[in-house]
Amino acid sequence: MQHVELGRSGLKVSPICLGTMTFGEQVNEVDAHRILSRALERGVYFWDTAEMYAVPAREATYGATETILGNWFKANPGQRDKVVLASKVAGPSRGMPWIREGTGLSSADIVASCEGSLRRLQTDVIDLYQIHWPERHVPAFGALYYEPAKDNSATPIREQLETLAKLVQQGKIRHVGLSNETPYGVHEFVRLAEEYGLPRVASVQNPYSLLNRSWENGMDESCHRLGVGLLAYSPLGVGLLSGKYDAMGTQAPDSPQGRIAKYESVRKQRWGRPEVLPVARLYNALARQHGLMPSQMALAFCYTKWQVASTIIGVTSLAQLDEDLAIWGTQLSAELLAQIDAIRWQHRDPAQ
Fold first, then answer.
1. Residue ranges of the NADP-dependent oxidoreductase domain (predicted)?
2. Is the N or C terminus of the chain more exposed, i.e. has fewer CB atoms within 10 Å?
3. What is the average pLDDT score of the chain?
4. Is residue 138 part of a domain?
5. Is residue 338 part of a domain?
6. Where are the alpha helices (DSSP H) in the chain?
C-alpha cells in the first residue's frame, strides 16, 4: 500500500494504522507481540497507542499497552526506526485520578505524561504526540451538545502548544496531533501555531464509520482547507459493523468475545444506544446484498474516502489482522455508495 502524508507535516504514514488499545486487556503480551510483528511484515508501520490504554481504562492497566509496545521494541532491536509511533497525553481526568488529579492539562502534566510514555515505550522519541481529548469542555464520547456553563478551562491552547513546542525542541516528540476535537479547536490550534511559530497540528484522531459520519458535518472542510489529516478510529463501530451480532437480540449483544457486551463502560457510551444496533444491521444487510462481508464494506468505506488519511484498525488476533488487511483495495460501486447515503439520510449518525 502507498504512503500518505499527514496534513502538511511531511510525516509519511501507512494508510492503515494499527490501534493497540486492547493490548493488556483483551490481548496478552505474547499475542500482542505476534500482531505487532505481523503488522510490520504486512506494511502497517504506523502504530497508535496512548498513556491511558488498555481500554476500558482502569488503574490496574494504566500504561499497560505502552509497556507491551516498549517490550516489543526491546525484543526486536533495530525495528523502532521502521515504525511511525503515535501516542497520546490524556486530557482532563474524566474520573481517572490514577492518571492525574484535577480538571486541567497543565504544562507540567503534558511533560510528565510524555516522559512517562517514553519510559514505557522504551524509546527516545514519539513521532506523533496527540492530545487525547480537549482540555476545555466539549461534546465528546457520545455527548451531543456544547454547554458553555460547563467550561472550566485552566490551560489556554497557546500554553499547551508552547509546551509541545519545548518537547519538539528537546527531541522527545516530532509532530503534534489532536483527538476527539471540534472545528473550533482545530482552527484555534492551527491559528496559534501559525501566529506564534509553534508546532502545526498534523492530524486529528476522531471517530469515523458508517455509524458516525459526523466528521462530514464541517470537520471535513475545516481540515481539508487547513491541511490536517483525519485518523479515523472505530471504523467497525466496536464490532457492530462486522455482522457478528446480527442474529442476536435487539439490545447490546451478549457475545463473550464482543467488547460492547463484555464491558459496561463501552455500552454506556454511544455504542449502546438502542438505535445503533438496528442501523448497523441495515448496513450489514446492504453489504450482503452486494456480495460483500459487512466488515469488508465498512472498512472499504473508510479506506477509500478522501476525508481519511489513515484508518485505525484494532484487532485481537492475527486472523483479524489478516482479514482487515485483505480488504485493502476493495472498491465500492457508485450504486452501493448511493444506497449507503440513503440509509444515512434516514437514520443520520446514531453513534455520534
1. 15-343
2. N
3. 93
4. yes
5. no
6. 29-41, 64-75, 107-121, 157-169, 183-196, 219-226, 259-262, 264-267, 276-289, 294-304, 318-326, 334-347
Under 8 Å between Cβ of 110 and 68: no
Res 250: pLDDT: 45
Residue 46 included in any domain = yes
pTM given for the model: 0.95
> Which one of 45, 53, 233, 283 is the catalytic residue?
53
Domain that holds residue 70: 4-239+305-331
Structural domain count, the chain: 1
Confirm whether 245 is a catalytic residue.
no
CA distance 22 to 25: 5
The CATH number for 45's domain is 3.20.20.100
Give CA–CA dist 13/119, Å, rounded.
23
* Polymer length in residues for the chain: 352
Between CA 331 and CA 292 the distance in angstroms is 11
Q: Measured between alpha carbons, how far is 114 from 87 in angstroms, rounded to an integer?
A: 9
Identity of the residue numbered 52? M
Question: Is there a domain that residue 318 lies in?
Answer: yes
For the stretch 130-154, pLDDT in tens is 999 999 999 888 888 999 998 889 9
**Residues 101-120 pLDDT 10s:** 776 799 999 999 999 999 99
